[in-house]
Write a structure and sequence with these properties.
By secondary structure, the chain is an alpha/beta fold. The protein has four domains: 3-99, HPT domain (Four Helix Bundle (Hemerythrin (Met), subunit A), Up-down Bundle); 120-239, Rossmann fold (3-Layer(aba) Sandwich), CATH 3.40.50.2300; 249-374, Rossmann fold (3-Layer(aba) Sandwich), CATH 3.40.50.2300; 386-533, 2-Layer Sandwich (Alpha-Beta Plaits). The chain has helices spanning 3-26, 29-48, 52-67, 79-99, 136-147, 181-193, 208-217, 229-239, 257-269, 283-290, 306-313, 333-341, 354-376, 386-398, 416-423, 425-442, 466-481, 509-525; strands spanning 124-130, 150-156, 169-173, 198-204, 221-224, 249-253, 273-277, 294-298, 324-328, 346-349, 406-413, 448-453, 456-462, 485-487, 490-492, 496-502, 531-533. It has a five-stranded parallel sheet with strand order 2-1-3-4-5, sandwiched between helices. Strand 12 (448-453) and strand 13 form a beta hairpin. It is globular and about 75 Å long. The chain starts with a helix and ends with a strand. It comes from Candidatus Proximibacter danicus.
Length: 537
C-alpha cells in the first residue's frame, strides 16, 4: 500500500482501538456510540480504498456492534458479548496489519534511468486463474494488462499461490458455468488469502442463483458471457484511480449549538468537512462561498422553517439537485411526507444515531457526486471532458503551494484521420480508448488526465520536476508506439505527439495550457511522434 494509505488506515485503526478500550474500561452507552462511529469511519475508509476483503471483516464487526447497540440502559454489555466483540476487533486489526506488509519486488528494470521517482509508476500484481493455467480470454487479458502497466500472473485452479504479495485483483476464468462446487471452494480459499484484492469471475451466467453463489464464495464482480473483456480492463484500471480527492463538504443549518456540535463531531470522525449556519437568512451567501455537497437542514428555526428555506433553494438553478436532509423531532408521518414533497431528500428524526447520520450523509453525497461526474466525464474514455479538465487544471494551479510546480502536457494522436478513414471509426475509438487506458495505468491518482477533444488529451502532473515529468511522458509515448490495436485485418500501431510546459515559467492555467499547445504544434512541425518542451521568454 502507498504510504498515505497506510497512514490513514493506521489513524482510523488506532482510533477504533482507543474507543473500544474506552468502552471496555467505562462500559457506558456514550463510549459504545463513540466506538461504533469510529468503526463506521474505518469501514468507510476501507470502502473508499477498494479493499473488499478487509471491508467484509469490518462490516461483520459493525453488524455485531449494531446488534448490541440497544438503548442506554443496556450497557455495559455482558462479559460474553464484550469478549466476542473484542475478538472481532483484534481480528480486524490483525488483517489490516497483514495487508500492509511489503508485496514483492518492484520491476525497477522497467523504469527508465532518467525518472528519479520510482513511485511514479507502480506495477500492480493481477492474478489470472484459469483451467489448467490456460484460457484464451485470460491470456488475452494478461497481454493487455502487461501493456497497461500491470504485472499479470497466470495460475491454474489448483496451483499454489504466489508468496509475498497481495494482488490488486484476481480474475477467475472458467470454461463451465455455473461454477462447480470445487471452484467455489477454491474461490473462497483465495478470498481468505488475499483479503484486500478485488475478485472478478469471468463468464458468469446472467441469472440470480449462480451469481449469488459466486458472491457468497467471495466474488466482488461477476462478469457475464455477454460482456466484453474490455469492460474488465476498464474496471481494473478504475481500481488504481482515486475518483474523488476532495473532502466531502456538509452545510449544517441548525440554530442549536449543542445539536450542531454533535453533528460536526460525527462528521469529523468520518473525515467530512462541515460548516454551521445558525441563521438561515444568510444561507444563500454561505452556499456560494462554501459549495457544499449536502445540506443538513433543521426543520424548526427562528423566522422561517427548514421547508421554507428548502423551497427557496430549489428555485435557484445551481441548487435544484443539491441533497437536503431534514433534521427534526417531528414524528408525524404526514408532516414528514409533505416536507419531502416540498424539496427534501430524506428525513432523520432527532435524536439522531451518529452511525445512521454518517451513513446517510456519505450515501447521498456519493450519489450526488456520481451524478455530477456524468456531466464532467467523456463517454468514450471515462476521463474528464474538456470543460471539467480546464476547471480541474485551474483549481490545481490556484491551490499550488508557494514553491510547488505543475507540469502540463497536451497530447495528440498522430495521423488520426487516416486511422478513421482506413479502418473505420470503431477502430479509431479503440485507439483513443487504448491511449486513455495507458495513461490511467501509468499515471498517479493525483495527476489530471482529460480528453480535451477528439484525439487530443491533456495531462497535469503536480509536484513534478520538469525533467521527471518529461521522462514519464516520454516513457508513455514509447510504450504507446509499441501497443498493438486490433482490427478485422490484423493489428495497427499509432503514435502521439506532445507539448509540455511547467507552471514555474507560466503564471496561470490558461497561459500554461497555451504554451503546451504551442509546443504540441511544434512537435508536429518537427515530424510528430515526439515531445517538445515549451520555451519561456
Amino acid at each position: 500500500m502507498a504510504e498515505t494509505t497506510v497512514r490513514r488506515l493506521d489513524e482510523r485503526l488506532s482510533a477504533l482501538n482507543e474507543r473500544w478500550q474506552d468502552y471496555v474500561r467505562e462500559g457506558g452507552f456514550e463510549q459504545f456510540v463513540e466506538f461504533s462511529v469510529a468503526l463506521n469511519s474505518l469501514s468507510e475508509q476501507l470502502g473508499r480504498l477498494r479493499l473488499p476483503g478487509l471491508l467484509r471483516i469490518a462490516e461483520g464487526l459493525e453488524n455485531a456492534a449494531l446488534a448490541r447497540f440497544g438503548a442506554q440502559g443496556s450497557h455495559p454489555l455482558a462479559e460474553v458479548d464484550i469478549a466476542a466483540l473484542d475478538r472481532q476487533v483484534k481480528a480486524l486489526g490483525s488483517a489490516i496489519v497483514s495487508a500492509q506488509q511489503p508485496v514483492g519486488e518492484r520491476r525497477v528494470e522497467e523504469m527508465p534511468s532518467s525518472v528519479p521517482d520510482p513511485e511514479w509508476v507502480r506495477p500492480r500484481a493481477v492474478w489470472l486463474v484459469a483451467p489448467a493455467g490456460r484460457s484464451k480470454m485470460a491470456e488475452g487479458l494478461a497481454e493487455q494488462l502487461l501493456h497497461f502497466g500491470f504485472r499479470p500472473h497466470m495460475l491454474g485452479w489448483l496451483d499454489p499461490l504466489p508468496q509475498g504479495e497481495q494482488p490488486l485483483a484476481v480474475l477467475f476464468s472458467s470454461e463451465s458455468a455455473p461454477a462447480k462446487e470445487a471452484q467455489l471452494v477454491r474461490i473462497a480459499a483465495i478470498r481468505a488469502a488475499v483479503s484486500t484484492a478485488q475478485i472478478f469471475y469471468l463468464g458468469a451466467e446472467r441469472a440470480m442463483e449462480p451469481v449469488v453463489s459466486l458472491i457468497r464464495a467471495g466474488i466482488d464482480v461477476a462478469v457475464t458471457h455477454e460482456e466484453a473483456a474490455s469492460s474488465v480492463l476498464t474496471r481494473i484500471l478504475d481500481l488504481v484511480q482515486t475518483r474523488e480527492l476532495e473532502k466531502y463538504r456538509v452545510l449544517v443549518v441548525e440554530d442549536s449549538r449543542v445539536a450542531a456540535a454533535m453533528i460536526r463531531r460525527t462528521l469529523t470522525e468520518h473525515n467530512i468537512d462541515s460548516q454551521v449556519v445558525p441563521d438561515p437568512s444568510i444561507l444563500l451567501d454561505v452556499l456560494a462561498d462554501y459549495r457544499p455537497d449536502l445540506i443538513l437542514m433543521d426543520m424548526y428555526m427562528p423566522r422561517f422553517n427548514g421547508v421554507e428555506a428548502t423551497r427557496v433553494l430549489r428555485q435557484v438553478a445551481g441548487y435544484q439537485s443539491l441533497p437536503i436532509v431534514y433534521l427534526s423531532s417531528e414524528s408525524d408521518i404526514g408532516m414528514q411526507v409533505e416536507a419531502l414533497r416540498l424539496g427534501g431528500d430524506q428525513f432523520l428524526t432527532k435524536p439522531i444515531n451518529p452511525v445512521v447520520l454518517a451513513a446517510v450523509v456519505r450515501t447521498k453525497i456519493e450519489r450526488y457526486r456520481e451524478a455530477l461526474r456524468s456531466t464532467r466525464t467523456d463517454g468514450l474514455t471515462g476521463l474528464l471532458n474538456h470543460t471539467a479538465s480546464k476547471a480541474r487544471l485551474k483549481a490545481m494551479a490556484d491551490h499550488l503551494p508557494a514553491h510547488g510546480n505543475l507540469c502540463v502536457a497536451m497530447l495528440d494522436i498522430d495521423h488520426f484521420k487516416a486511422v478513421n478513414d482506413t479502418f473505420g471509426h470503431p477502430v479509431g475509438d479503440q485507439v483513443i480508448r487504448n491511449l486513455a487506458w495507458l495513461l490511467k495505468g501509468r499515471l498517479r491518482a493525483t495527476d489530471l488526465i482529460g480528453r480535451y477533444g477528439g484525439e487530443e488529451f491533456i495531462l497535469a502532473l503536480p509536484d513534478a520536476h520538469p525533467d521527471t515529468a518529461y521522462a514519464v511522458i516520454e516513457r508513455i509515448r514509447r510504450d504507446f508506439a509499441e501497443l498493438p490495436h486490433a482490427h478485422n485485418g490484423g493489428t495497427l500501431y499509432a503514435t502521439f505527439s506532445a507539448g509540455m510546459a511547467c507552471l514555474q515559467n507560466y503564471p496561470s492555467a490558461q497561459e500554461i495550457t497555451e504554451a503546451a499547445d504551442n509546443a504540441l504544434l511544434e512537435a508536429k512541425r518537427r515530424g510528430r511522434n515526439q515531445i517538445v518542451k515549451a520555451c519561456s521568454d
